[in-house]
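input
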Amino acid sequence: MTMTETVTDNEFSDLGICVVIPTYRNAQFLPGVLDSVLKVVCDVIVVNDGSPDNTDEILEPYSQRVTVIRHSENKGKGIALKTGFKKAVELGFRYAVTMDSDGQHNAADLFKFADAIEKHPGSLIVGARSLDGKPLTQGSGFANKFSNFWFAVHTLRRLPDTQTGFRLYPLSEVADMHIFSSKYETELEMLVRCAWKGVEIQSVPIDVYYPEREERVSSFRPGRDFTRISVLNTIFTFVAFIYGYPSMFIHYVMKKFGR
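output
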């Protein structure tokens, strides 16, 4: 039985799932992304994070089918996600699946997230990309290994892919979280802090498409963003000992003894 046979659009609504898509300078990919997602889920929130291109014009035909929020200036992916989560809570959703707007994620994989959350209610579901044979830059491959290592240090857990933006978040755990970061490192921060709160974290395999390097539009700046991520990891290493590890132990004991 395929995933499309186990979960329908009505079931996405029944589970309280919406899709949040932050976008910045990806106008050329956005129509394809939205068209594919709307074939699967009818509840979609797009956060235009101050794009200087024609993103507003691209979104206009979707205004009756998609909830659109616009930042007057670029604030970073982390802030865009928080804006999307806040709107999702206002609209009554329990979960938000985040997707990138550059076309790298396969909308058909949304069924896998819905299937996983049915089996593991309240969990954070993280997509696990198969990167073999993908046209990654050397920096991208290193970034994933780097992030996976530090996530294991901070949480005593291992995940195969901590860098993907294709995730399902339980809004009760992240919507009111006071995030200290604002850019790409926010996704790592939310992942670590959910682990510290005792949130169950599951992985599901996902497909990923990367265009040739010369065709990509990316706001990731290796020097600047690696520095920000390194600073965050340094802080988390100290916080893990004084808060993270004790918090995880307490939540483990409470679950173990049913409290």
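quick obs: The two ends are 37 Å apart (CA to CA).
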